[in-house]
Amino acid sequence: MGADQLRHRRDAVGAHVRLWRQLLRHVEPAYVAAPGSLLAVAAWRSGDRALAEAALDEVAKTAPDYSMAGLIRQGLRSGISLDDCCDLTPEWLEEVWPVADARTGEKRAP
Question: What is d(CA 109, CA 57) in angstroms, rounded to the nearest whole number?
Answer without folding.
Answer: 40
